[in-house]
Amino acid sequence: MKITSNKQPRTPTLFESLLPILSMVILLGGGYAAFDLPPEPLMVISTVIAGLLVKRLGYSYNEILNSISQKIAKTMPALLILISVGLLIGTWMIGGTIPMMVYYGLKMISPAMLYVTALLVTSLVSVCTGTSWGSAGTIGVAFMGVAIGMDANLAATAGAVVAGAYFGDKCSPLSGDTNLAALAAQVDLYEHMWHLLYTTLPSLILSAIVMTVYGFNSGLASDDVPERIILITEGLNNVYHFNPLMLLPVIIVLYGSITKKPTIPIMLVSAVVAMFNAYFIQGFNLHDIIKSAVDGFNVSMIHQEIPAILHNLLNRGGMNSMMGTLLICFCALSFAGTLALSGALEVIVHQLLKLVHSTGTMILATIACGLTMIGVTCNGQISILIPIEMLRNAYIERGLHPKNLSRTVEDSATIFEPILPWTAAGAYMAGTLGVATLSYLPWAVLCWSGIVFATLWGFTGFGIAKLTKQQQSELLAQAEIDTAKN
């Protein structure tokens, strides 16, 4: 039973509506970006501020809790997918699927094709692992070693690695941010991923053209493979037994993506197959296989000496690896649930949409929101959740499918994040690859061209999914039900 307060709730003013969001921006911009404070308590403080506003508007404490609970309950299936992602990475690692991708990817290196190979192989590894940071910190570091050995352009190599890492991340069902964008927009994961290709695939092609042309005109002629690459490939070959069965877990996920099968069951089947590979082909014991699924793979499970460079490559995955992402999600969803009860987002969006007169300007408004959030908060998850929460109903009212929104937010926040020096992603990529963010920025073509293609498609209508009248009516009706429940 819903408990209400005696005071009749009222609609907030524009200033009251902006106050919680501005508070969150200031707290995250100052605390997280400037002083490196963890974002979770800052989001909790932002939620408290939003809660005080909601109380001032006439809502009760129980109504606030009810709104937060409903917001979390609605996203619980996607949160379960995030946990399944950690399970999949851990089992793919111990089963040999990811190591085999890395092994054969590194075997493809050719001097003149160094830059485009770095782009494409990092993309492949990132698709398979679902982590841009992981692929940049492993394969990316390996390619930087190749570039140093060949006396290549380190900024161009780093740009190729970053672009490839983020393409793979956005087009992988294992990616936390991709799952988060789909759940926030209430769009099927695979539908979101396929729709994202309208902007990421042209950006990848453009990146590949730039890297190929530059590679053939850069004077790279050495055919020597640096010792770093030899250590990785020989180390992996000594630890794992590679055969085509290692690809079966990948094929299962790809099949599920193409046929749009339920995400979690497909991931579980893929993980089970990877476990069988780990036991029957790789020779790991059952205890280590289960531990890898829960806590992630660790090189201590390999009972032989391996090169130190493989430690960073192999130590990853597990369901527990997703707990940090889940905590941020819960904090952000608490803020979103509290704010949704106040009606503040409706007030803000109403003012914002006075400037929107076409699909193109709607896309531009979304890009502006995404860039502002990532530029100020420096947090990818928050920069996904808040703009989608603000604009989803506006898209539906204009007959635009919410997957246009989830795609544009990823283009303007997630993919743009690593080319901003003050964000965690920008700092990580610069520190890991040894190249300043602003130096590799021009070469990370995919990261900044996404918003160009998003804007172009918005004004031309290409790749813009429209809702049928029936779909629009159903989604609007569901939105009214959700509002009534709040």
UniProtKB/TrEMBL annotation:
Query: Where is the major localization of this protein?
Result: membrane
Give the membrane topology. Answer: Multi-pass membrane protein
Q: What residues does the Na+/H+ antiporter NhaC-like C-terminal domain cover?
A: 164-462
Which UniProt keywords are given for this protein, alphabetically ordered?
Antiport, Cell membrane, Membrane, Transmembrane, Transmembrane helix, Transport
Name of the gene: nhaC
Indicate yes or no for the key word Nuclease.
no
Organism ancestry: Bacteria, Pseudomonadati, Pseudomonadota, Gammaproteobacteria, Orbales
The record lists the membrane-crossing segments as: 12-35, 41-58, 79-106, 112-134, 141-167, 196-217, 238-258, 264-281, 326-349, 361-388, 419-437, 443-465
Q: What is this protein called?
A: Na+/H+ antiporter NhaC
Output the NCBIfam families linked to this UniProt entry: antiport_nhaC
InterPro entries from the UniProt entry: Na/H_antiport_NhaC (IPR004770), Na/H_Antiport_NhaC-like_C (IPR018461), NhaC_Na-H+_Antiporter (IPR052180)
Please report which protein family the annotation says this sequence is part of: Belongs to the NhaC Na(+)/H(+) (TC 2.A.35) antiporter family.
Q: Where in the cell is it found?
A: Cell membrane
**Species of the source:** Orbus sasakiae
